[in-house]
């Protein structure tokens, strides 16, 4: 390990209490997407104090920011997130016990995600200053990942255009490279408008917007038989009327359309639009379409992935203590039988991982070529800038994401120790790229070849001119 790498690790170890405190504060704030005022301010204040130049309000989002230090090439970007999820408020205990009933909670660990990146960029800056190492570091504060909004709008508005490569991570249940792709997606709302009337005395005068929604959902249900097996269409009726004796004049349904490739999403989306038109004809109603966001599938960069994995091996796994292991056992005991095995199987990870509650080693990459059955707006960055990511163990093996158990674990010492490994891994990787510019060039060459084969990126929001907050 060279001098710069040692400086990174020493700084993070010396300042881990401040980093732990930041993760706990953001966990407590548990702010909704696009409303992460306290969380973003906390990270901005740390970075500003350490000499980073701050730009706020990127891409029309008040809680999106970039913090920059340095002035020369290469430009290394670190992605951070800090939004929470509805209905996942939870205390750090081994049974379901919300802090606030139906409140927001960090069921995906984003209280850890941004803090690790901040720790990494500050530590790398300290090392670069000491060694007079040239280059530029950017930390991107990205809101609203859970709704697939933040980075998609940031990409649309070319926020990342001057960055050479991007690195990030995600809290998980094992310590390894994230080598799989993800599903492309559209998030779209259909609002139907009819005519109200008394449902008993003169229903013939009414035109039910709710019936239009119901017929649309029936049509989509039949459509599912005739789309590719790997595609998924999820829905929820967000408004269906107010009282049974009033024919609803307004109703709304919200869809997520997912598929392995962007072109598949676009084809299915067009068919869903036609289903909505059919529902109009059958009910004599009208409708509006609100495409909220969309994203691509992930292009993991192998060059950068190797850099991250080499750094992860140097850092080693989290050093869990007796208290962590006891809490992990309590959380595992709360799972229904077979849950852990199912979660591990779906990730493609080795089945023997379920033999231990907390992953305490470094797992060789195992998921290259697989498609994770979820979506992320990191994918849109990866189509424009070489990007790679990894996981560290922040929850017990087999913990499903977006659950109260995940929230509890990432608010505990388990999550904090996993975050520390992530901060060190990112910090070492920044130094590696600053010291070896040829790796940046190779990463760019790899992405150029990917895009040549896959076709150019066109923002899913190319017809959306508004900001995400309007």
From TrEMBL:
Pfam families recorded: M20_dimer
UniProt-listed GO biological process terms: folic acid catabolic process
Membrane spanning residue stretches: none
Residue span(s) of domain Peptidase M20 dimerisation: 187-277
GO MF annotations in UniProt: dipeptidase activity; para-aminobenzoyl-glutamate hydrolase activity
Coiled coil start-end: none
One Gene Ontology cellular component annotation held by this UniProt entry: cytoplasm
Xref: InterPro entries: Amidohydrolase, Aminobenzoyl-glu_utiliz_pB, Bact_exopeptidase_dim_dom, Peptidase_M20/M20A_hydrolases, Peptidase_M20_dimer
Name the UniProt record assigns to this protein: Aminobenzoyl-glutamate utilization protein B
């Amino acid at each position: 390990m060279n001098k710069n790498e040692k400086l990174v690790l020493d700084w993070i170890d010396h300042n881990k209490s401040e980093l732990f405190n930041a993760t706990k504060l953001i966990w407590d704030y548990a702010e909704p997407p696009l409303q992460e005022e306290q969380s973003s301010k906390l990270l901005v204040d740390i970075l500003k104090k350490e000499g980073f130049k701050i730009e706020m309000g990127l891409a029309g989002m008040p809680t999106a920011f970039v913090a920059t230090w340095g002035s020369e090439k290469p430009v290394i970007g670190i992605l951070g997130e800090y939004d929470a999820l509805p209905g996942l408020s939870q205390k750090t205990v081994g049974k379901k016990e919300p802090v606030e009933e139906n409140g927001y909670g960090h069921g995906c660990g984003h209280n850890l995600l941004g803090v690790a990146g901040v720790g990494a960029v500050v530590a790398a800056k300290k090392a670069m200053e000491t060694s007079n190492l040239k280059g530029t570091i950017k930390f991107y504060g990205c809101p609203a990942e859970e709704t697939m909004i933040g980075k998609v709008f940031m990409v649309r508005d070319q926020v990342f255009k001057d960055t050479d490569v991007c690195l990030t991570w995600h809290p998980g249940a094992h310590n390894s490279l994230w080598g799989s792709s993800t599903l492309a997606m559209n998030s779209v709302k259909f609002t139907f408008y009819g005519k109200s009337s008394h449902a008993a005395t003169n229903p013939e005068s009414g035109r039910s917007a709710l019936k239009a929604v119901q017929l649309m959902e029936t049509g989509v249900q039949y459509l599912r038989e005739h789309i590719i097996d790997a595609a998924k269409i999820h829905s929820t009726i967000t408004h269906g009327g107010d009282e049974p004796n009033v024919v609803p004049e307004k109703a709304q349904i919200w869809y997520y359309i997912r598929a392995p490739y962007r072109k598949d999403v676009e084809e299915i989306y067009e068919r869903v639009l036609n289903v909505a038109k059919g529902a109009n004809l059958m009910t004599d109603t009208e409708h509006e379409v609100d495409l909220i966001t969309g994203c691509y599938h992930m292009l993991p960069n192998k060059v950068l992935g190797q850099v991250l994995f080499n750094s992860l091996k140097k850092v080693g796994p989290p050093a869990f203590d007796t208290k962590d292991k006891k809490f992990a056992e309590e959380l595992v005991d709360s799972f229904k039988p077979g849950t852990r095995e199912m979660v591990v199987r779906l990730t493609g990870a080795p089945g023997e991982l379920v033999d231990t509650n907390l992953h305490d080693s470094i797992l060789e990459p195992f998921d290259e070529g697989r498609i994770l059955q979820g979506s992320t707006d990191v994918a849109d960055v990866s189509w424009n800038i070489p990007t790679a990511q990894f996981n560290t163990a922040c929850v017990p093996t087999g913990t499903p994401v977006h659950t109260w158990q995940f929230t509890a674990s990432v608010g505990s010492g388990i999550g904090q120790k996993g975050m520390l490994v992530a901060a060190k891994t990112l910090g070492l990787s920044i130094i590696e790229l600053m010291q070896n510019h040829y790796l940046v060039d190779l990463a760019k060459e790899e992405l150029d070849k990917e895009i040549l084969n896959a076709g150019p990126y066109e923002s899913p929001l190319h017809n959306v001119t508004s900001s995400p907050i309007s």
